[in-house]
Amino acid sequence: MEDLMTTSFETVNSADGTLIAFDRTGEGAPVILAGGAFNDRTTVAGLAATLAPDFTVIAYDRRGRGGSGAGAVYSVEREVEDLAALIDHVGGSAAVFGHSSGAVLGLEAAARGVAMTRLAVYEPPYVVDDSRPRPAADLFDRVRALIADGDRDGAAELFLVEGTNTPAEIVKGMRDDAFWAWFAGLAHTLPYDLALCGPGNVLPADRLAKISVPTLVMDGGESDAWMRAGARAVAETIPGARYATVEGQDHGVLRQPDVLRGLLTEFLG
Question: Start and end of every AB hydrolase-1 domain (predicted)?
């Protein structure tokens, strides 16, 4: 059956006129997938294929990535408008799944009253305990300065070391891998992810407490302690939210999309 699924490439204009590109797959109630840092519509395509037998899945390029425009000036509000434009385009309400900073985007949109039926988030990267240092408040400015200087490799490295708490020696090794070109290619969008998370990745408890959409918060059983603590805190802050751990998985769960199928089809259905 899945072999018969066709994927169509489409675009929609956001409120500020920026073109947002997406792939539509499957049939059924709409679900929109928002990836995190270093992600575009291709990195959520596996999850789209996994959900497509049960849903109409929208895998989109967040602004500045892939086929989407960047717009004149970035703000979190513009990204929320992008998500709202997609929801409008598919019929006025939809379920949303967000991974990492894409999870933060989903939470911010829900808190601002964007019309979604359900929201599922995986490891929004808020820092709520002292198991890792909080990202410095000026990380956004330093990453942006490196990009302005044309140092995309340096920007990606700084984001990984200070933003995601990846050990510096691991990142040095990553720079020798073929896939590093992908990271450098999306480095110009890292300030967007940092803006979404806010200075120091502080949990926005007041905003999260306003969310009235049924919400599922997930983490991986093998994920870093700080990410799991952040996910639990989000679940405890959103009224009535469900919390679930995907055993055997870490932050890279999108590489194993089938492990999310049962949880997401049950919750989003």
Answer: 35-260
Q: Which residues lie below 8 Å from residue 160, measured CB to CB, with a gap of 6+?
A: 166, 171, 174, 183
- What amino acid is encoded at 45 in this protein? A
Domain count, the chain: 2
Q: Angle between the 139-148 and 190-197 helix axes, to the nearest 10 degrees? A: 170
Same domain, 145 and 248: no
Same domain, 18 and 50: yes
User: Among 194, 213, 231, which residue terminates a domain?
Assistant: 194
Whether the per-residue pLDDT at 4 is higher than 70: the answer is no
> For residue 137, how many other CB atoms are within 10 A of its CB?
11
Structural domain including 233 reads 2-130+202-268
Residue 10 in contact with residue 57, Cβ under 8 Å? no
Tens of pLDDT, residues 139-166: 999 999 999 999 999 999 999 999 999 9
